[in-house]
Amino acid sequence: MARKTATMDAGPGVSVEDVPGLDRLPAGPALLVGRRAELAALRAAAARPAEGRSRVLVLAGRPGSGRTTLAVRFARTVAADYPDGVLFARLSTPDGGRVPPARAARRLLEQLGADVAGVPLPGAVEDSRDEPACVALREALAGRKVLLLLDDVRDAGQLWPLLADEPGCLVLATTAGPLTGIEDIDPVILGGLDRQASGELLGDLVGGTRISCDPVGGADLAEACAARPAALRLMAGWLRGNPKLAVTDAAKELARAVREADATPAGGAKAAGGVHAAGKTASGGKEGARGGPGASGGPGRTKGGALHAGAGAGVGAGPKAGTGADGRAPGGAGAGAGPGDGKGVRRPAGPARGGAKRGERRGGTQPAEHVSAPAPEQVPAPERPGRPGGAGKPGTAGTAAGGAVGTAGRAGTAGTASTVGSKAEQVESAAAAAAAVPVTDPAAWVKPGPEPAEPVPVPDNDPLIGAFTLLYGTLSAAQARMLRALTLAPGQTADLRTASALVGCPAPEAATMLAALAERELLGAEPPAADGTPRYRVPGRLYPRLVRLRESEDRPAEVELARARLLERLVRLTESARALLDPAGGPGPDPLPGPLRLRSAADARQWLLGERDVLLGAVADAIGQGDLDGSAGRLVTALLRALPLTGAAAPADLYQLHEQVLTVAERHGKPRRAAAALLNLGDLQAAAGRWEQACAHYRAALEHARSADDEALCARALEGAAGCYRALGEAVRAADWYGRALALRQAMGDHAAEARLLARVAEAHTAQRRFEEAEREYRASLSVLRRLGDERGQQVVGDALAELRERLDGGW
Q: Residue 59 phi/psi, 5° resolution?
């Protein structure tokens, strides 16, 4: 059979091979048939001139419609038109979680090669477009020709903060829909494949002879699959495993599996598929999943930018509640957090914990319980304080996750776009309001909805679920267990290192099973790791079903053991990476088996940066569930030691880790550990110039330090709060808090800190125009420094005293 694969000529410009970033795109299936009309529509939309902002293309389709595959293919064909690179980010997690725009912006900045260490921590802003990372991304895109592929966008509120005022850039967003609120877009909606393309796909995947000998059966099977590529691929894999089964019977089997999946709990999937593996068929009518969602081919559009991808169905689970922190900080007594009374302690107002945040002093932060006095550098001017609780970031245990999740899902019929009157009215009113605003104003072309959208679920009576049920029934017990266990992987992304830990098998065996599952379309291929290790991802369309299977087939003790093995594996890998990057920092763990081992410092750095989201996600998941605090604590400790060694540690990631330390410390009633974590959080806020938030952290740390009767931590908290008051221009309070810290340091016999604090008190007196007291404190500081033999300190304080005397002599 002649294959008519959808292809396009690359646009003019540089060679495609010279465009950076193409290796970040998901590999996807090698075979793509049909979709010529949709590709042509995307190309035409990309060619339209843009005024005042990046051009935006939206590609929408139900789960399993092949929207990501088509978007990647289109991106590769037009990449030559964007010589400054291709960027890629997913804005949803397989479990339906919503990725905050600020986190996506930070990852996109890293792909551009920007220094994320200079991006401040996210703040409490009214508008996500004002998030520091989003602002930095838009500034970095100015004057560049970049293609941004944003996959699985949940709502316009995620997309619009990332849109730069740069006409040379192109944004291609995929969504399950509806996606409303962005003006001047003409969305391309994916339905099912046409009859010819469906036959070609089945013929290429199953075998042309088998399909060509039974064209009616092939057509019936395509109709039962609603002509959706994902369902067709799963059924093709099932047919390959049942070579004696007639294609005509496959459609009947699928129809029966769909009915049973709709009426039977997920735990019955294995039994439902067991008969088919032996080639037996059950009696079934000719019905099947006819006219499934999006069965008609060709691009579809709705007016006014309101987008509905086929038939949205139901209301899915919202984002998981955020997670918190971990147990031990480096240098403390013991790494794990043992059982505690769960007593909570008051937290300061500040950014919501659990999200990825930015902003750090150049030198990084110390792990919890290893804190030092603030450096005497000049402090920047204070900024306007924000509200407590950062916007759009998942919180820790007990806090709200991300943003409000509330729009109801929509149910539709086959091949139709379901519309809701209120949404249409919103779009019309938004368009009317935009007419009076200049097109160059972002407010004119972006009208985000008031609430994030719910994820579009895959209902049990969907042909995709039926096809999965049949194919799942043909897996071996080990493969099925592996597939279920991968839902426990952070971000549902795994390689042989994490997969072998989850199921407790040798790495080569795990690699074989992962490749087999990917070959059967049950896993998606991801870009490989820096050392070439293949990586895979659980498709979001299958994730909810696999979770139900895991809950019904795996005992809770087995699941907890798998999670514990994964955490311990990540701890060993992180410690190994740290030992390679800093051999003088202490010995690493026992060597890992050969296939799991990191070979060099370069490999260690690339692994830490490439797997950073996996590592942070593993910590967040474990601490959120609260049953593996010891292992999670060891991983936090290892990450706080290892990430700064890469030279590219994002302050937001360090902030998140210190928050996790705080969460576990509060959970187990460890005030000293909580105080140390709060001090590090305060340091990060102070480095970002957020003095009020930093002061709240320091004051909360003081309370914990007092309850732990730790004078050193009390003095450190007093000094930090005094520095915040000084930056805020409150000289009287600064002098008071510096004086209290000074008294503690003198009682402890810490003469170096005494000299530093005497100079700080003198500065506070100078700001109050109390010059005699200031001169006295400077001279006392000089006296202490002389006893210590600190010549550099004597020079600094002597210069400050001389400047004071010069100004006084000049009549100041």
A: -120, 115
